[in-house]
Design brief:
Largest sheet: 6 strands, mixed
Low-confidence stretches: none
Radius of gyration: 16 Å
Oligomer: single chain
Strand order of the largest sheet: 1-2-3-4-5-6
Number of strands: 12
Number of helices: 5
Mean pLDDT: 94
Distance between the termini: 33 Å
Helix content: 10-25%
Length: 204
Amino acid sequence: MIKIKKNEYFDVFSANSYLLIDQSRNAVLIDCGYYDKNIVDYIKNNNLNFKAILLTHAHFDHIAGLNKMLNDFNVPVYIFNDDVKLLSNSSLNGSFLIGEEINVDVKNIKIIADNDIINLLEEPIKVIHTPYHTQGSVVFYLKESKCLFTGDSLFDGSIGRYDLPTSNFRLIKSSLEKIFSLPEETIVYPGHGPNTTLKNKLYL
């Protein structure tokens, strides 16, 4: 089973990130909306084999900590191809909304696609493309651990915005159908707010 360390950054956006650790001390980080020295220290103090950062999408509140994190750890960043352009474009990644220009310089990008299997931990991580919040939004599914990391595709009782650059409200239904095709006991770890399960279905 995978150990999950949830990190919440409490500001106006309150973005979540998640450190996943297997029994062999391999670890990956899902989303990096802020730079958390506590997480850096946790990785180092526990001698974790930190292997990668996985992005559910590339809005600023999920990537703002990447530059500093990559200074500490020379690891690849896994991202869907359609969201790569958001990393270095403040108009597309939404940072213009807070009057800033947040740009990320990622040297080692690993492009992921729908239904890819990421083998970085003892348990495989499945990529599911959910392109409505951004063109390249994905969720990450770990079947054995019964957990799903949804970014801004699904929250507890609501869904992400679909009025931002590269959003497409026409794809909401098909994206949610992919998510809700998974077992209802699956635990949802969203990009904002508390955890939930797929049993608490959201009908549009």
